[in-house]
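Entry 14. Structure prediction run on the chain below.
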Amino acid sequence: VDLETAKQELEEFIPHVRTMSDASVRKMAGRDLLRFKQFKKQGIAVKFGRFSQKENDQVRKNVEEFLSITAIDSAEKLLFTSRYPEEKESINRLKVEHGFCEKLSEGIPRPWRLIYYRARKMFDPHNYKGRYTEEEKEKLKKYHALHGNDWKKISEMMSRSNLSVAMKYSEIKSAVNYGPWSKEETQKLIHAVEEVFRKRMETEDANSHSLSKKSHRDLLIDREKLYQKLPWTEIEAKVGTRYWRQCKQKWTTILTNRMTKGQHLYMGIKGLQAKINLIKRLYEMKAEDPDEVNWEELSNTIGDVPRTYVRAKFYKLKVTSVPFWQKKTFSEIVDYLFEEKLPELEEKL
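Output returned:
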């Protein structure tokens, strides 16, 4: 299909497709469009965000099956072929012959690119290698001075994953303040987020051939967009004194305070009632995985708060109330909270 037709057809599944580059749209049309249509026939929506345990298991299964079909030695060779220059040609040939793209994405209603990135993160032996030593941090600074943002090259030199070295450099590249946020820092954060939204709106206007005067438009944002995925490394650079994760946490706090008008919804009697309501609603949902939960809907259980706030409160509840929670499935954790913790909270109330 031609580019414009591809965009029109993909828009049904990827609402922001017109903000993507033409090259990305062409790849998505080739790798994803047919799959998306097949999932639609089955009544399955295209997903974004965090991968569920079920999806992780499917990625693992797809990779292992492809290895058994092709007799490629390891997942690292399959997903990080450039690390093996002598075998690169033969591995790439096997990938083409046996439909690597189709096999990797089998049974997963997500864009292929996201599935590929997830597989690389799961199977990279250089990932999850613990805290960086001071020596490693100094090496990272030195390699960045030599190679800039060539994270692929730096990751090979550091024996760490691309994502790991990029995020760690983002953290250490400037003096980060770990104390309370000053008024000036908070204002910088709010302005940085506002700038991101303005840029997005201008792109949307340009793509819809809007003739309105953008410079005179009020910045009206759907509530949900306020805590959707934002370019936090870009926002971090604009704030200047805070690490990206701190910016994300502070933004959630600002939204929570504004949406609740500063009320402490999770303290005292209100807090007890919020925990009780949260446990009951989660139990009623019968979800097998946290990514099957509609956290937006659950936010009304506690009050008018961002879904990230609700997830954080659930995390705190399971950590403080459920013994050996790391070894339990999501549904087992919810069952325990309902059967053991709920009666205790109701008695307190």
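The chain has four domains: 3-123, 134-173, 183-260, 268-348.
Filed with the rest of this week's runs.
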